[in-house]
Amino acid sequence: MRKYKNQQAKQLEQVSCNMCGRELKVENGIVMEGVFPVDIVWGYFSSRDGERHSFDLCESCYERWTAGFQIPVAKGQEKELI
Ligand SMILES: [Zn+2]
Hints:
By secondary structure, the protein is mainly beta. Helix content is 11%, strand content 34%.
């Protein structure tokens, strides 16, 4: 869950993990720790046609969530991080 200082400029003020509620560290509009941001518009063939859902998970909640997957997360390695 994200809060912005200026809605038009979209300057990030606060990010909270939707699962555990913990506030993540944000400095100068940048999240300073691992975060799993989700922003999806459900498509035509879903039962949520056109609904936009967004949430954030902290890294430990992401680990707990994905640990329950029947098929593990596909992992690779990026050389350059943004
Ligand atoms: Zn969490």
